[in-house]
Design a protein that fits this description.
Layout: H1 51-67, H2 70-76, E1 77-85, E2 88-91, H3 92-98, E3 103-120, E4 123-137, E5 143-145, E6 150-159, E7 162-172, H4 199-216, H5 224-240, H6 243-249, E8 250-257, E9 263-265, H7 267-275, E10 279-280, E11 285-296, E12 299-308, E13 311-312, E14 315-316, E15 319-329, E16 332-341
Parallel strand pairs: 1-7, 8-16
Antiparallel strand pairs: 1-2, 3-4, 4-5, 4-6, 6-7, 8-9, 10-13, 11-12, 12-15, 13-14, 15-16
Length: about 350
């Protein structure tokens, strides 16, 4: 489902690669977080979607995207759909409105290698590899080649007897042989010369993300501050290489799509990747522009911009846009899935 129209923002990505090799991906759906109900009269848990079923939906959506089929996405997407990149949140209506505005000439394409991870009993994420030979022309008349290969992540939620898309993101895959090491918090853009910024410009810049959030997706809900504080503590855990903190604040089925097309699944594998980076000079981290929206009383989507100073694996750190799915486990919120994207994507 190639909804994130990133064909027009590729210049900086070729200089990146994740600092930690991705552990073997997992095509099975974990259920380590499933609570067993001892009540004999309790209804059996609904069946989880198979990787093949979710991949088939991805292919349908991809075909509809290429054709500019708005009607398909009206029924395919949940009304609570969120997409986030470069500081901008998009709702279902806004995304559907964009479908068809890019005219594409695609000679061939494929979507394969599905990797499935559980978020909760009614929410699953599927990651797949997309390969494309074609180009798209935007409203400005400029034509650019479709990025390929990519790694996508689509979250599907059960609504009645149907599965509907509630999130989609993707990253260009950068091979280790073609790019230097970096970390998932790296800024892809080359450092530009500093320039004088007036107070007015500073104020305008600081409000830019807030303005884009408020004009696109639903307003932040009452859990935003608490989830933002929790997510910020995760950045501190990354700075301190605090594996124990990560274990406390994440689910066993944790999965991540990092900004250079690497899919990592399983709590232990993700924590190993996050704590295994070789970093220097990291003295501060931040998480700002947070917006959380409720999917259900026990599931929230949090978006925002994370950042850090210093370097990791030889690359300068910077801004990183994150979409995080948090599930409620008893009284605690835990991270179950996260997708990350670089500035300009």
């Amino acid at each position: 489902m190639k909804l994130f129209l990133c064909a027009f923002a590729l210049a900086s990505v070729s200089a990146l690669m994740a600092g930690c090799g991705a552990p073997a991906a997992n095509t099975t759906v974990g259920n380590a977080n499933t609570n067993v109900n001892s009540n004999a009269n309790a209804k059996p848990a609904a069946a989880a979607p198979t990787a093949d079923a979710l991949l088939a939906m991805e292919k349908q959506a991809n075909e509809a995207w290429i054709k500019g089929d708005k009607a398909f996405f009206e029924g395919f997407l949940s009304d609570k759909f969120v997409e986030y990149g470069d500081g901008k949140r998009m709702s279902k209506s806004e995304l559907v409105g964009m479908i068809g505005s890019f005219k594409c000439d695609v000679k061939s394409w494929s979507v394969d290698d599905p990797q499935v991870s559980r978020i909760d009993a009614d929410t699953y994420v599927v990651s797949a590899k997309g390969t494309y030979d074609g180009s798209c022309t935007g409203p400005d008349g400029k034509s650019m080649k479709i990025p390929s290969p990519t790694r996508t992540a689509s979250v599907y939620i059960r609504e009645g007897d149907k599965w509907k898309g509630i999130y989609h993101g993707e990253s260009v895959i950068v091979a280790p042989s073609t790019a230097p090491a970096s970390n998932t918090a790296s800024n892809a853009k080359k450092e530009e010369p500093k320039k004088e910024v007036s107070k007015t410009d500073e104020k305008t810049a600081s409000n830019a993300n807030t303005a884009s959030n408020s004009s696109t997706a639903p307003a932040a809900d009452g859990n935003t501050d608490a989830l933002a504080t929790l997510h910020k503590s995760g950045w501190e855990a990354w700075r301190n290489k605090d594996a124990k903190k990560f274990e406390e604040m994440t689910t066993k089925d944790l999965s991540v799509l990092n900004p250079v097309g690497m899919w990592i699944s399983g709590q232990a594998n993700v924590i190993t990747a996050w704590t295994g980076m070789k970093c220097e000079g990291v003295t501060k981290t931040s998480f700002t522009d947070a917006v959380a929206t409720a999917v259900s009383p026990t599931l929230e989507i949090l978006t925002g911009k994370g950042s850090s100073d210093g370097t990791c694996d030889g690359q300068k750190n910077g801004d990183l846009y994150q979409t995080a799915f948090y599930v409620k486990d008893g009284t605690a919120w835990k991270l179950a899935f996260m997708a990350e994207s670089l500035p300009g994507m």
